[in-house]
Every structure is written in C-alpha cells, then in structure tokens.
Amino acid sequence: MKRFVALSLFATFTAYSMYVYTAGTQMPQPVAFDDKVSAGQQLFQENNCIACHQFYGLGGYMGPDLTNVISATGKGPLYARAFIKNGTVKMPNFHLTDEQTDAVIAFLTYVDAAGKYPTENYRIRWYGTVEGRQ
Question: Which of 103, 90, 42, 44 lies closest to 63 in space, CA to CA?
Fold first, then answer.
C-alpha cells in the first residue's frame, strides 16, 4: 500500500511538473517580420519619425506614442494612413507612395502586436516590486 501511494505521488508530481514547465513557458505566436515590415521600419528610420514619436514611451515628445495606434479604440490602420499620407500642422507630409504607406502601416502593426503601452494594470510599490491591479 505504501508503495502504491509513493508511486502515485511520484507520478502526480511528475505530471504536474511537466504541465507547469510547458504551460508556463508558452509564448504567443510572433508576428512575422517580413520584407514589408522591414521596409516600413526602414522608412520610419529614414524619415526620422522617432524624433517626434515614441514606442513604449521612448523617443520624441512632440507627436503621440505609436506603440498601439493600430489597435487603439477609435484609431486603426485607416487613421494612421490618413496622417501618414496627408500630414498635419506639426507633422509634414513626407509624400510617400501608397506602397510605402502600406509598409509603414505594416511596421506599426508589427509594433502594435509586440506589446502594450502604457502598462495600466500594474502599480510599482515604493520598494520596487510590481503589483497587479484587479
């Protein structure tokens, strides 16, 4: 009987350990970084967009943070396309072709899928640890 209990505990421990090891390390499928995304990144860098805009709070402060501009409520690819194609008072029109505009939007979609900013559901305690908000 003791042997049965010991084997049962060992089997349960092993199965649970395997589950925790595999389930705890699953990552979402990454968005493909294809040639179109690469071209969009190149255009973003060539036109020095980061001088005014930010990703994850890093970059210039004249324009808005573009981390989640594609998935933000009330915005999206058409919103981004309108600003990229026409410019604004503070943002010049870079006279990009439709293909170049599609590439920049593909890059913004890639960045959007990579994460979320700002991290609204977390609070940093005074002693440096992070607490999740409910």
Answer: 90
User: Could you tell me the CATH number of the domain that includes residue 51?
Assistant: 1.10.760.10
pTM assigned to the model: 0.69
Map residue 104 onto helix, strand or coil. Answer: helix
What are the mean pLDDT values of the chain's consecutive 10-residue runs (134 residues total)?
Answer: 92 90 69 91 96 90 92 93 93 95 96 81 77 66
Separation of alpha carbons 58 and 61, rounded Å: 9
CA–CA dist 124, 18 (Å, integer): 32
Asked if residue 126 belongs to a domain, the reply is: no
